[in-house]
Amino acid sequence: MGEALHPLLARQLRRLGLDEAAAPADDQAWACLLQRVARAYAEAEQDRYLLERSQEIASGEMAELYAALQAERDLLEARVRERTDALQLSQGRLSSLVSLSSDWIWEQDDTLRFTYFSEGLKQATGVDPAQLLGKRRLLDSVVDVPPDVAADHERRVTARLPFRDLVYCLGAPGSRGAYISVSGEPIFAADGSFKGYRGVGRDVTHQRLAEQQVLKLARYDGLTGLPNRTMFMDELERTLALARRHGTAFALFFIDLDRFKNINDSLGHGAGDQLLTVMAARLRGLLRDSDLVARLGGDEFVVLLDGTVDAAALAHVARKALAAIAEPVLIEQRSHQVTGSVGISRYPDDGADAAALLKNADAAMYLAKDSGKNTFQFYTAQLAAQSAQQFALESDLRAALQRDELLLHFQPKVRAGDGALAGMEALLRWQHPQRGLLAPGAFITLAEDSGLILPIGQWVLSAACRQIRGWRDAGLQVPRCAINLSARQFVTDTLVDEVAQALAAHGLQADALEVEITESVLMSDPQRANHTLQGLHALGVRIAIDDFGTGYSSLAYLKRFPAQTVKIDRSFVKGLPLDRDDAAITQAVIAMAHSLGLEVVAEGVETQAQLDFLRRLGCDEVQGYLPGRPVPAAKLQARLTSRQAPARAA
Ligand code: C2E
Ligand code: MG
Ligand code: MG
Description:
This protein is an alpha/beta fold. The chain has 22 helices and 23 strands.
């Protein structure tokens, strides 16, 4: 046996006390050996089996585990992929939003220095981020933040609070003065320490400009483009504050267009607007840039003249303004002329505050109007008293209607030939509780300007009709009675109806009444006047042209209107018979009127010489102090003759 024995066998031999070189000692030992060898094989087999089995089991488990792990990994991978996709999507979304949006994102570090701006900033505002990066908060270099807003912002930032919609104007170099709105939130690290701010910005220039436009609209008059009352009052306050501080003076003009209401009423609002626009431009063009011209409303303009309160200089400006206003205006292919009235107040002499200065300039303007229009007045304490009286008079007049203080006087019109009563004219009077009996000259303009003329006119109409009815009922023969109509009444659409109703209400025929209208009423809006006149004419009411000769129209022109009578104005009669011009005019008017089929009444006949002269010229009727002054109804009654008994029923 040259080869070495298998160790297992060698081990068995040793256990049996057998030498590997020697032969077994006996059979028993052999048998034992064989037995043991066999057992050893069996054991070895068993061992191998166990090993294989455990290996088998282990690898099965491993495979299972592996499969599980695999599944887990797949799941994880899928999730990661999903997340990555989602993240990519949202990043893409964000970055395209950031780059597409006109808004931008910004970041600041803990010292509030800018560290980042997205594209949008430059696109929206034109500001290069490079100019801002590393710089501290923009608020240091901005304009247009109201102090309270700025203070609130400071407070929030110091307290590390979020802020929203802070709007300011970027005055940064190279920008075009963009208005931006920013919102931001503080950034905190995990340990709670402040890391800076992050936020968004937005260009709001368009919005801001639109807001400013709206604001501007609120401060300027839409029609004329002039500053309106709001802006004017602001400027006046500002000027006042400066004048108080520096001890300087300034003046205020209050300008009102005379008879603007007539034009507006008769030609329509379009024409009125046109007129106002022209006037606004003229006033603006006339004054220096430093003077503020504003429209307070209606036909009221104001001028703030900063610099001089010298009376001569102001009078010069006022005259220029009046001349500019009085230039003819072409509206709807017709030339119109309006005039203005100017009232002037001065700081500090005529008022210490805006309200007083304005009120006093207004009062002075009213006095300018009263003293014949197309003129100017400085405010004085004496004028103040007068104007207070005017104001009082207006409220008195309002009350007069209710308190029944109005009454009519009647003035006869007689035939020039034989002096027989041919008609009469109702003339308005006001029994003022303090000032006594007032003639229309004292209050008719006021009534017209305040609009009170309309209810007053209606009162006159029905009072005249009532009086005629009363006389008739008393059995008296009443010749036609004339009432005067003012321009304001003439442009209402209801006049013809009102006359018809008044006649009907008192059971009168139309020929009981005559209306007198002045030339100027016809001339200011001929078409409309003619329309109303045709209506009255159709009713059967007689029409007389009053104050003829004062309105620059010709009789031939007046013939277009359905009038039956002209009344030669008192001013021509006055010079008769000696004044050659008056005589010539009167003669011509009478001759022409007759040739046109019109009757002629001469007004203001005070002397026998006038009457004789007019009689010779063939004047039809005369009216004046000679044939009879205006008198209360009861007095005129004496001149009315009784009717024959049977006529009483009418
Ligand atoms: P008018 O219609 O021309 O009336 C004639 C005016 O001349 C009246 O003045 C009358 O008193 C005055 N008068 C008459 N005869 C003479 C005279 O011989 N010499 C002088 N110096 N004056 C004479 P009054 O009553 O003061 O009225 C003035 C104007 O007021 C009227 O002028 C008329 O335009 C207006 N008026 C009068 N009543 C009314 C009315 O009810 N409504 C309207 N809208 N106006 C009226
Ligand atoms: Mg009259
Ligand atoms: Mg008259």
